[in-house]
Amino acid sequence: MYKWLVARGTVTIVQESNLLSVDIDPEGSASCVLTSQDAQEIAHIITERARSIWEASDRSPEPKASVDGDSRAFRLTVASGVVTLIAHDSKPFLALSYDGQGAALLTVTQAVALVQLIQHLLRELPEA
């Protein structure tokens, strides 16, 4: 289990057999706020855990991840709800929120999509 205290809130990542459980707790706010460093570290952890799941699996193809949005805001639909990522317009922060029951449960494909979205949004952030 990885529990990350981000600029505002906490993000907990747990590998559960063939899924990643990502608990996004904004601690009373509308969303967690991640610095660039927070986002990079969380993306790294998700990548490592997804790789571990993939290597232990039978490597059967999964359905494509369901993502919609624009260049600065995205929604990733997962079985348990919707993960939303938004790049701040004037500060080097990402807003991360989850609308669903319990933690967000991600397949390997969805975990890869989340990492790709984080990486894209990090490039969109203004300099610190």
TrEMBL record:
Entry protein name: Roadblock/LAMTOR2 domain-containing protein
